[in-house]
Amino acid sequence: MLDELQAELNQRALQGLLRKRRVLQSAQGAHVQVDGEHLLSFSSNDYLGLASHPDLVEAMKLAADQAGAGTGASHLVTGHQLMHDRLEQQLARFLKVPAALLFTTGYMANLGIITGLVGRGDAVFADKLNHASLNDAAVLSRADLHRYPHHDLAALEKMLANSAAKRKLVIADAVFSMDGDIAPVPALLALCERYDAYLMLDDAHGFGVLGAGGRGVLEHFNLYSERIIYMATLGKAAGAAGAFVAGEQVLVDYLLQTAKPYIYTTASPAPVAASALAGVRLIEQDSQRRQHLHGLIKLLHDECRLQRWRLMPSETAIQPILVGSNEDALKASECLRESGILVPAIRPPTVPKGTARLRISLSAAHTVADVRHLIAVLEKAESA
Predict the structure, then answer these.
(1) Which of 167, 273, 305, 367 could make an S-S bridge to 83, C-beta 3.0–4.6 Å?
(2) How confident is the model at residue 382 (pLDDT cuts 50, 70, 90)?
(3) Catalytic (active site) residue 236
(4) Annotation marks residue 205 as catalytic
(5) SS (H, E, C) 310-332
(6) 325-330, long-range: CB < 8 A, 24+ apart
(7) Do 332 and 262 form a contact (C-beta atoms < 8 A)?
């Protein structure tokens, strides 16, 4: 088996698909030290620049003094601490929904929600560009899985109309993590209402960024429905770690009984919940960060002029540049690194074959000068 594994790794390397880790030697931010180099980073999901904010750091320190480092048990035994409870209440208040439930990671949240709600005899309808965690959860649930082409509402409607499943669950990224585009949530909800389905949205990349108050994709579209199951993470715009599901009280009560990744996992440390709570409060109170971020997004689209590569349409912090081949994307990323800029090359299977890209992540921690420097280096790298 080991020989076969090595052969597969060698093949990945030949195809330009072998992934390698970098070692971050500084705090997360616009300017970082990675593998001994000082770089301007456009590679993090720290969209509001809160990962190193003093309020989050101080909240974590105070919580560690009060609650210790570890929880020692699952939430349903003795691991559910005061900070977890406060964070769930704050999230529900902030999102203006009845209840919220914490998970350790976004991946675990998606596994827990979907496998907890549907099973044999039910049906899941999924956008083909959904995050891997949504796909894995749908398979593990043992429900019938139907995948529709990206944003193809006509195909989705046909699938829903032909389904006789007891429970129907439509699942979609709210903001697609590799394209940066926003799901047509009002249209998805309308189909769910028409065909008695429920809509689960993974708003990992919209929470804190979209909407006038940072409440994510539902505020962006001014939507509320009992049919919506809202999931988001706390390790991106909120600057900490973890994830949650929010919605009706009965939904949270039910998942508390059925979501295995919640039930059978040691609760995340209370200091992490405390820092996330501080991050959510800053999302609510500091709208200037969000306004600055959207100004940078507009600046990039207004001033970036590429000839061979293509800046994909996106009004979110995720700004992908379509390059094409794996080799060209890797060369482009390396060219930027040699100029002091860190932008990752994204390749299959994360994106479809032939669509390798540079994934630029903008942050409120960036300055106008940072983005203009990025544009200049991109234009130079494209012509190299």
Answers:
(1) 273
(2) confident
(3) yes
(4) yes
(5) EECCCCCCEEEEEEECHHHHHHH
(6) 325/16, 325/354, 325/356, 326/15, 326/16, 326/17, 326/356, 327/16, 328/356, 329/16, 329/356, 329/357, 329/358, 330/16, 330/356
(7) no
Catalytic residue among 236, 275, 333, 366: 236
**Which residue is catalytic, options 146, 205, 220, 366?**
205
| H-helix or E-strand spanning residue 351 | none
DSSP letter for 18, please.
-
* DSSP conformation class of 75: I
Write out pLDDT tens, residues 218-230: 999 999 999 999 9
pTM (predicted TM-score): 0.94
Mean pLDDT of the chain: 96
Cα torsion for 129, 321, 326, 3, to the nearest 10°? -50
Q: Which of 43, 177, 275, 363 is catalytic?
A: 177
Domains of the chain, first to last: 22-48+286-382 (3.90.1150.10), 54-285 (3.40.640.10)
DSSP β-ladder status, 99-103 and 341-342: unpaired
Per-residue pLDDT reduced to its tens digit, 63-120: 999 999 999 999 999 999 999 999 999 999 999 999 999 999 999 999 999 999 999 9
Quick check: is 41 catalytic? no
Q: pLDDT tens digits, residue range 311-332?
A: 999 999 999 999 988 889 999 9
